[in-house]
Predict the 3D structure of the following.
Amino acid sequence: MSTQGARHHGSVLRVGLPAVALIVMLGAIFTMQPRATSYFGLTVLLNFTLPAIFAAMAQMAVITVGDIDLGIGPFLSLVNCIAATLLAGHPLLGWLSLAALVGAYALMGALIHVRRLPSIVVTLGASFVWLGLALLVLPNPGGAPPSWLPALLSWKPPLLPLPVLASILLAICGELLLMHTSYGVVLRGIGGNPRAVAHTGWSLLAGRMVLYAVAGACGVVAGLALTGLNTAGDATVGTQYTLVSIAAVIVGGGEFVGGIVTPVGTVIGAWIMLLAGSLLSFLNISTDWQLSVQGGILIIVLGLRALNRWSGA
Amino acid sequence: MTDEAGEAFVRLIGISKSFGAVRALAGVDLTIQSGRMVSVVGHNGAGKSTLMQILAGTLASDTGEIRVAGHAVGHGYGVRRASALGIRCVFQELSLCPNLSAAENTRIFHPALAGPGWRRRARRLIGDALQAIFPDHGIDPRRPVGELPIGQRQMIETARAFTETDHPVRLVILDEPTASLDATAAEQLLRYTGEARARGIAVVFISHRLPEILGHADEVFVMRDGQVVGSGAADALTEAQLVEMMGVVRGADPTHAPGWRGGGEQIRVEQPARADTPFRVQLRAGEVVGLAGLAGHGQRELLQAVFDAAFHPAAGLRVNGSVAYVSGDRRTEGIFPLWSVGRNTTISRLRALARLGFLTQAREAALAEEWRTRLAIRTPDIGRPITSLSGGNQQKVLVARAFAAEADIILFDDPLRGVDIATKRELYQHVHRAAEAGRAFLWYTTENTELVNCDRIYVFYRGTITDEIAHTDLTEERVIRASFGAGQSIAV
């Protein structure tokens, strides 16, 4: 395709390429494991996309304003530990602390905006706070979530397995809220040219706080989903989700520069990152390689994109 | 035409604004009638943009009163309030979000474009405005504006200022709107401002193209040094009169140090004349050559090209000797804010100060101390952090760094912008002394009064040189005429 054409269909390609990549991966998996095509097979294959898609959506909210969240993984761990202890024992206290965590995310956004701090430093610092709190709540792996949580996660909706249904709904919701509402435009505008948005009278502080609060809320849902699947708490369980969430946003067509994100692509990106691990195990390759492969995919995608930009310039 | 209270639509009374020690506006009065086009002209730093930002609500004035439609706007005047009063501004720097489409950028502009169907309404609003101002514009309102060429982006930005939702447009400020438009689009815009005026919309038009102003504006205000120094009906003024008003020299100018001599024999920089200009660039050892003109017309590009050519030979530009660069933008490309005064001075000479790859601290300190004394940098101790110095003294450190590098060619990128006059005078003398010792200076300045320190001056306009002025022929009028495009070739 000519560069002129490629540029003109930029937004189509942005989601189109990862979608094609996902279909190819699914095709490969289904060929190797025909049993994976069944309702039950899909559920097993895709169960762990549930925390991943919400973690990726949290990351996307932060990347929308041109920031990055290096603390989302440990944040999932903290939610996991709270869900496996407080939420079962003292439901009210549990829910209040989860709500406080969402508020903490919004305040983190406010801090980054008001003090003009680099988000990479603030969220990295916060990641140690989340980890420390998680260890305080649950020093050793264990605990148990309230019984409704695993039940919810093992719910079998008609027609589509839960992970597939949740992914579709989340993608549609994200697309509607961020890409189609009029305030979503303002939020993306902040990522594109904050000064221009401020010049027209919008509050950048409010915008950043909203997006960080959304990130916190998605992080809480991701942590709860993780707890429902694991049915136990562990203060280090979420660590890998930092990389997975960033990679999902970028592989799905988002960019670090801010304002260029796609919710549908992000969900597809999360699936790709997760299925890369499954593909390895179907190929009888040790899952020790999983992290390297996920990181490798991210580097390859960014590299190809840079290459495309040079040839287009 | 007057408003309900019997007053002009906008009256600015005694507006003043200072940025630190620099006084940008010193008591400006300006009146804008509905349905009229007012043009504001002036050289760099005359205060045009600051005044417009205050009127548009993006900047607060220190003193003075803004009256709109007969009422004082009072405290808390900001963008939203200005917009509700019908005041719109097309800023000089593009203020669109590159990741959003034309329709989405219009939405950002209008809080009222919300709720179901907002996208359709936004698309129609901007589409209609574009069609009215720039017929046959060929812009796809769905594409992110970052993918569009700069001319189309400027069209969208201009058209957006004329769109209306809940508040009617009463005044549009166009700050150099034609700079990035091609001739057809510029003509379309100027024709449209006529239609807008007929509907009672006032227009403030800022441009560096004097014929455009005289041909289309109703009234012209001339600004200089933060004040309005003249005004009149556009059809009663000539280009020569405008140039004269812009260029009245005020205050005492620094004069040459005794014993000033012309350039030496050795050619340091040479660029042959290009197709678009008859002037070649030449810089000899011991010479101080000024680069003048309005900001952003190609002076910095020449400095950058000379700097690059000193390291990698380039076609069409010969540079003979080592270079040092002094930036006026000390915060982003000058100082190392966490380092001491001494370290900031000696960074350019590290190789000479090192022995077997290790720095000799005593020699480093000695060099820094030497330059502190020579340039009279006011700090009790060179070990102090650079940020403990005043702005003028920080700038002195940057100049000291360039001098300490012992380069043959020193490139000045408007280094004395915002520096107090006493510091400036001191540095002028150091430049003269260094030139006498054989250094060559290429000096870009936005302050015309600084040009008297130069042996020769090249004036830039839209990327090319429009005049070359020898020191003895220097008049500010000639610099301004060339800055606005009319050079020696067009003559007096």
In short: Confidence is low (pLDDT under 50) at residues 1-9 of chain A. The interface with chain B takes residues 7-8, 10-11, 180, 182-183, 185-186, 188-189, 191-193, 195-197, 199-202, 258-260 of chain A (CB under 8 Å).
